[in-house]
Amino acid sequence: MTNRDGNLTSLWQDKARDFTSTLLPTERHYDVAIAGGGITGITTALLLQQSGKSCIVFESRNLCFGTTGGTTAHLNTFLDTPYPKLIKNFGKDAARTVARATREAIILVTELTSTLNIDCGFRETNGYIIAQTEEEVEELQSIHDACLDLGVDVAFISSLPTQIPARRILMLRNQAAINPIEYVHGLAQAFERAGGVVMQNCHVEDVDPGDKVRIETSQGTFYARSLVYATHIPPGINLLHLRCVPYRSYALAIRLKSNDYPEGLLYDMKDPYHYYRTQEIDGINYLIVGGEDHKTGSKSETDSSFRSLEDHVREHFDVKEITHYWSSQFFESVDGLPYIGTLPGHTDNILVATGYGGNGITHSQIAALTLRARLMTGEERYEGIFKPGRIKPVAGLPKFVQHNAGVAKQLLRKMVGLDELNGLDRLRPGEGAIVRLHDEKIAVCRDNDGMLHAVHPTCTHMGCTVVWNSAEQTWDCPCHGARYSMEGKVVNGPADKDLEQIILGEPVKGS
Ligand SMILES: Cc1cc2nc3c(=O)[nH]c(=O)nc-3n(C[C@H](O)[C@H](O)[C@H](O)COP(=O)(O)OP(=O)(O)OC[C@H]3O[C@@H](n4cnc5c(N)ncnc54)[C@H](O)[C@@H]3O)c2cc1C
Fold first, then answer.
1. Strand, helix or coil for residue 402
2. What is the pLDDT of residues 213-259, one digit of tens each?
3. 3-class secondary structure, 15
4. pLDDT of residue 238
5. Measured on CA atoms in the order 97, 100, 105, 108, is the torsion positive or negative?
6. Which range of residues forms the domain containing residue 32?
7. How many other C-beta atoms are found inside a 10 Å radius of the C-beta of residue 394?
8. 340 lies in the same domain as 405
9. According to the model, what pLDDT value does residue 162 have?
10. Considering only CA atoms, which residue is closest to atom 33 of ligand 1?
């Protein structure tokens, strides 16, 4: 089994073996250094290495430790931000470019799995969007019209390959699905065969830009002409943190009583929507269902999200056993498109790919193609539409401001409520809370062995107060999505520094 940034085990990590690097760095100087060993980092590294650049990947933990190990891995030519909205926000030409980019992303995965012979359960299949109310039927019609306008291959059909009730169904041809960890491991092996270096357990700690970027890592100093942050969200404090909202999403892997596993990728139109697909691993079929998304830190009792998802699944499917429960994080950009290109406020050789929303498997491939073009020829592939410095034609910022205001209110409520917690003995195993102890706010949780752990609850990124995530047993920051273990260790950026530990039993400052 491989590791991931949470307490729960995803289907993929359960079935995957760790990736072992075979090449040690003999060099300290590279053309391109990539921070982050998820699907973005490894695909980008491979494409660049194959094109003649010398590349090194630094991964803090192990490959797929981040969201790639906790995704559901649908590859789509349509996005969470539907085409009518993209046309409205960016115009028809830009929306057509986005549609072309999504198609090229799927073609890239098809080609890489086939030419490199990667055994990752890749299959091309249809997608189905399911309208269940009159309002949804109307919305689906506008999605259909926009898709046709942009050249996305869709058609209304009359029945679904499953028993989910539907008033109208839009079929999207040529979508795809993969086992994400096996895909990334296959790419990483090809990257090494091409001479690239993967350093796991190697955290990028500091970067000094210049013609030669100086990169301080937990395993020493390296230099590169360019650096790509493929860390899902860039570390440090950046304009992009004000343009990306962190969300949690939940997934289940299920064995059905019958062998009636639905073919294709399915989506209802609720808000948040549910998504379904089947994956065969070692000869066994699993139905994978996802949904119940919410803003990170807006909820502490995250186990209830699993209960809702489970109730939903049992309504539609003949469940024999739920084998895996897991959740993970994504970052939604304010205008619905990812940010791929120069990191705002930095020189042209410091690059980033972030703000993927729930489409990061597709967007990561678009990012790899875009970054290869930038670094090989200086070309702005896709007419520069994904550039982080784009001037947004839409009112995305008010939504973001609302998000932050909501977070602040919710935190205030939490503090008032928690004042009522008289004794830590009330905390059961797996629970956590922000408590006041001798006028000091502290974040306390009890692990499954009954041990209490305490940390200062102020996120080291920008000073927000963290919130307990009961399902994944982490402290999550509602502002920009940094996450910490029970002991306060960073498990997700953008924070770079751990939460300060408090040794319980000793007097807390102010007592
Ligand atoms: C539940 C869920 C389901 C999803 N389903 C889909 C789907 O069906 N289809 C789809 O298209 N998208 C989906 N997504 C989104 C998609 O999975 C992600 O956008 C994508 O996996 C992000 O990949 P990444 O490589 O950019 O980031 P990650 O996979 O998070 O990788 C970043 C890596 O960087 C490392 N790192 C961080 N900081 C440093 C540092 N300083 N130095 C070195 N390494 C560092 C981390 O350890 C991590 O391994 C889903 C997301 C969620 C939460």
1. helix
2. 999 999 999 999 999 999 999 998 888 988 999 999 999 999 999 98
3. helix
4. 87
5. negative
6. 11-384
7. 13
8. no
9. 84
10. 36
> CA-to-CA distance for 62 and 309, rounded, in angstroms?
29
The average confidence (pLDDT) of the chain is: 91
Q: What is the mean pLDDT of residues 178-196?
A: 98
Taking the C-alpha atoms of residue 480 and residue 293, their distance in angstroms, rounded to an integer, is 16
Phi, psi values for residue 129, rounded to 5°: -100, 130
Closest atom of ligand 1 relative to the 74 alpha carbon: 8
392-430 tens-digit pLDDT: 444 444 454 455 445 444 444 444 333 444 556 778 889
CA of 382 to the centre of ligand 1 (A): 22
Tell me, yes or no, whether 491 lies in a domain: yes
Six token digits for residue 478: 């509602």
Cα 495 → chain centroid: 16
Locate 393 and state its tokens. Answer: 């034609």
Ligand 1 site residues (CB inside 6 A) read 35-41, 58-61, 65-68, 70-74, 203-204, 230-232, 235, 249, 251, 290, 328-330, 356, 358-362, 364, 493
Q: Are 477 and 491 in contact (CB under 8 A)?
A: no
* The last residue of a domain, from among 361, 384, 407: 384
